[in-house]
Amino acid sequence: SVIKSHFSGLKSGELPAGALGALSLGIIEKENKQVWMRVDPIQVHMDAREAVCAGNRFLNLESDELQSLEDSFNDYFKDEGFQFYFKDPKAWYLCLQKQPDIGTNALADVEGKPPHLMLPTGPDQSFWHTKLTECQMLLKTHAVNQNRVKHKKPTVDSVWFWGPGRLPSDVKTYLDYVCTNSQPIQGLCALAGIDFMSLPEDYKHLEKNLLNNQCETAAIMDTRFKRYHNFSNLSERQERLNFYEKAWFTPLLASLQEGKIKSIVIDGCDGKRFYLTKRHLRYFWRRNQNYAAI
Predict the structure, then answer these.
(1) CA separation (Å) from 179 to 28, 70, 219, 291?
(2) Tens-digit pLDDT profile for residues 143-189
(3) Of 7-21, 70-84, 215-229, which gets the smallest average pLDDT?
(4) Phi, psi (5° rounding) for residue 135?
(5) Per-residue pLDDT tens digits for 91-142
(6) HEC profile for the chain?
(7) Bigger pLDDT: 47 or 88?
(8) Structural contact between residues 237 and 198, judged by C-beta atoms closer than 8 angstroms
(9) What is the SS3 assignment for 161-221?
């Protein structure tokens, strides 16, 4: 994967997103050896044929709602030995007694698709499918959702289990600085001992940090690209690509032209890589196009 090309010391298979994200939020310390998993809140919408995962961009859960839901989940699943932590409106965490024998899909890979086709698989899948149903039943009758219906707010329809595992023990990277919206990647940065920051809205807010830190090699890791890649709504995807061109690609190109940065490497979620230096800008026969024209 793209992430594993930048960080070493990771095992094959799924990234332990639960443990890494819990570390980034300060729920656990680097020495933690417990098993963690993401259990993110999601909306589920019906299209013309079937239910589709709509992610959680529009939920905007308040702190009191999170606390109420966390208390209810911990009380309901106490006999299972589960411990839930709902400290972030979009990313929920679950501490487990043992490693589940399942394969899961990241929420970013599921958005815009039918969730029933991408449920956990493996020897323990029946158990986790049952737990998912129980979570849905708990949410359906919960006071938080009932109040949201009353005030015409979107409801938490289900949760998404993904990224089980423990913290990796020997993470290294060649990067000096990372800017990302991903909590698991922030966790990797913490383990590797490098500085990181949350993703701002545009490159201008990041450029000063990069120059002040005198970074040799920095990375901007925006996992939202994967979500937009999955969307069947072409107009929304085009709108977001136009935004990225204006807020990120154009100012990055200007910094390259001005000599503030030496090169740009773009790793796409489809596995493609693009490399650009100031020398490449002299290739006058390459016609510039914006996304709207492609």
Answers:
(1) 21, 29, 6, 24
(2) 999 999 999 999 999 999 999 999 999 999 999 999 999 999 999 99
(3) 215-229
(4) -65, -40
(5) 999 999 999 999 999 999 999 899 999 999 999 999 999 999 999 999 999 9
(6) CHHHHHEECCCCCCCCHHHHHHHHCCCCCCCCCCEEEEEEEEEEEECCCCEEEEECCCCCCCHHHHHHHHHHHHHHCHHHCCEEECCCCCCCEEEECCCCCCECCCHHHHCCCCHHHCCCECCCHHHHHHHHHHHHHHHHCCHHHHHHHHCCCCCCCEEEEEEEECCCCCCEECCCEEEECCHHHHHHHHHHCCEEEECCCCCHHHHHHHHHCCCCCEEEECCHHHHHHHCCCHHHHHHHHHHHHHHHHHHHHHHHHCCCCCEEEEECCCCCEEEEEHHHHHCCCCCCCCHHHC
(7) 88
(8) no
(9) EEEEECCCCCCEECCCEEEECCHHHHHHHHHHCCEEEECCCCCHHHHHHHHHCCCCCEEEE
Structure tokens that stand for 5 in this block? 């090309």
